[in-house]
Specification:
This protein has 325 residues and is an alpha/beta fold. Helix content is 31%, strand content 21%.
Amino acid sequence: MRVLLYVIVSLFVMGCGSAKIVQTTDVDPQTTKSSGTFTDAERIGEMMNYLASDDLKGREAGDQGIEIAARYIENYFKSYQLKPYFETYRDTLSNFKKPAYNIVGVVEGNDPDLKDEFILIGAHYDHIGTIKPQNGDYIANGANDNASGTTSVLEMARYFGTNKTNKRTLIFALFSAEEKGLLGSKHLAQKLKEQDLNLYTMLNFEMTGVPLQGKDYFVYITGYDMSNLAEVSNRYAKENLVGFLPTAKEFNLYQRSDNYPFHEEFGVPSHTFCTFDFTNFNHYHKVGDENSLMDFGHMATLVNKAIPVIESIANAPLQEIKLKE
């Protein structure tokens, strides 16, 4: 039976004096990994059109627009049965002057032993806000960077939150202040390390809004040769899902996204999944980073392909992802 869940979130958009209504439509929570159709382009588009809208003014850390995005994420987590990892979903940054928050939810593992091992799945939800106008447009909406990764992680959270199929515990973290120097992920990584979290691996999603061109793989990971994550992922995907992008190594992308603080603090496999390769999108940190250029079908396919991989990694009897010597 198809279940429709309408979540009505009333948010006041600062500066325009009107209430913003967000409606999301759920699909059957019993949809399994074998169908490969958990999410679709229409649903992805609805979420993207909200997160990268002009109303959110580019989601700069500490500004009014990102506060609206934070409430959206909190309501999303609550609707799909994620528990707050801390006392609330908000993890207040201590390394940034303005009020800024990571939003952190958790789906506890269902195995009495493996649930004490943690997998962290993350993306940053901030962008650079407003910038010098170009053709009258001054809002850097950040659709690809990184409403795309945020939406991907939220849909994965919906799957695991409603299905509860994971043996290991999954933490879903949306980071603020990535654009200020990875401040949100640095704050959370240090905090979790102080708590002696038993972190197995960190999987980050960054700029997944447009497909790669001319590649024999669907997505690449940064730090490809640092662990066997690609090999494990491709085995579970039963296809060449994850590949190596030489440019990623050349440009040191491993150190430039939110996977890196977890590598530094925990010394565990920590990687970013990405489909932006500097040739397939020309609007990085520009006002042209708009939803009109995003491929929602591609994004849905990425989520549908990633879910069974993450599920298999979470449920394997032993930790398979290993750092290479």
